[in-house]
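Students often ask why we bother encoding 3D structure as a string. The short answer is that it lets us treat folding as translation between two languages. Here is a chain of 262 residues written in the first language.
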Amino acid sequence: MRYHLLIITLVGAIFLAACGNATSEPVAENTEPTSDTTAEAATAEPTELPAEEEVPTEDPTEAPTTEPTEEPTAEPVVEVRTFQIVPEETEASYDVQEQFLEQDLPVRAIGLTNVVEGEFQFTTGDELSGEVSRMTVDLSTLTSDSDRRDQAIRDRWLESNTYPLAEFVSTEVQNMPESYTEGEEVTFTLVGDMTIRDVTQPVTFEVRGTLEGDTVTGTATTFILMEDFGFEPPAIAGVLTVEDGVDITVNFTAVEVSDTQE
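And here it is in the second language, the structure alphabet:
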């Protein structure tokens, strides 16, 4: 009995061993994808690439616009020009009214001289201005159409042999034109002091003048009373009387001089 049990046990062990060997061989793995896998791969949605991050860009800086600049207007050149009177081309005169008792109408007595010296300045630029630094006239050289009159003026009336010079010095220029073109005549008023026989009085000259190149020509006129300068009008009892009023005229020519010539 024990013998039969042993044989059965042995047979069973062999059987189990045979079964074990049969199942120990690996089954070849089917590496081909199944249709489900293929379909799944085909229908898989594409992976979205990450969106590119936008790099902020700066707005281009707008170049500042440059306003057109106006060119500065050239300033007029201011120039001070000095002129000296040319005696040979200048004449100073007096004009008075004489009344001879035997005549119904007065007579004009005119005395002339070209012994005149002086200088003046013009300032040119935006505006024209001027002044007479000085002007002197030798009264002792005045001559008229009567030697007798001339001698009486020198010795008794004007006493120009003792006080030969009349001098004018300007203090102010009035009524100058706002603009000036060379070659055009201008008119203005010259205010100053005149000295005759050591007596100084204010006098106003009305002036007309023309500047052409380096030469100025013109006329200056004024009116004075003899008594203002300390002398009586000439008179000869029963023969002659003279009105107390003198028209003075200076017709002048002056040329420009440089600083080294002054």
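Translate back mentally: Residues 65 and 140 are 78 Å apart (CA to CA). Keep this in mind for the problem set.
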